[in-house]
Amino acid sequence: MFASDPPDPVRYWPLADLVVRTPRLELRPDDDAGLAALADRAIDGVHPADEMPFLEPWTDDAGNPGFARGILQYAWRCRAEIEPTRWSVNFLVRDAGRVIGMQTLAATDFGILGEVRSGSWLTRSVQGRGLGTEMRHAVVGLAFDHLGARAARTSAFADNVASRRVSEHLGYTPDGVEHHVRRGRPAMLMRSRLTPETWQRPAWTAEVDGLGPCRELLGAPITR
Description:
Blueprint: H1 9-12, E1 19-21, E2 25-29, H2 32-43, H3 67-80, E3 86-95, E4 98-108, H4 110-113, E5 115-122, H5 131-146, E6 151-157, H6 161-170, E7 173-182, E8 185-194, E9 207-209
Parallel strand pairs: 5-6
Antiparallel strand pairs: 1-2, 1-9, 2-3, 3-4, 4-5, 6-8, 7-8
Helix pairs in contact: 2-3, 5-6
Domain N-acetyltransferase: 41-195
Enzyme class: transferase
GO molecular function, one term: acyltransferase activity
């Protein structure tokens, strides 16, 4: 019997080797062990019960037995549907090796439109330390400096002051509003847009490794 070579996930799934590093954080596309750790953190709370920062109020199910499983299933679904014309990459955010949140970067027809969208959340125990700003800078830097994006969009409800402050800090400009029903009541969603020219770059530069093999999957130009 001949020993077989160990499996190499990067051969078939290049995102497995992608990493973005900031002064305090490490962002990697979701993996199953990290998702389980994130689900454990989410059970402890993401926001006060009388607030709802998300368009889909998924945190209302935190007390249900299937809540943690739902976080994994959502991430698996996003991962399974990634293709060059439509993708949503959920980066697990780690601080000193501990999973503390999720930062999403998504796009539709990126190779043609050159635009990305972002969304994120942090567990309550680490909020208020500027980490939300740092992780947003990380994916914006990935998009603009490495993928060649021409614009980045995000949105937040009018009463989500923390998220809106992050956007303002980075240099996003208003891009219209939307009206939605949230927990049975009307709510205003504020859209924002950022370009490489308006981005208020931080004093540091994100370190990106493992991106080359991911470009085709993300519909990004192949660099030579």
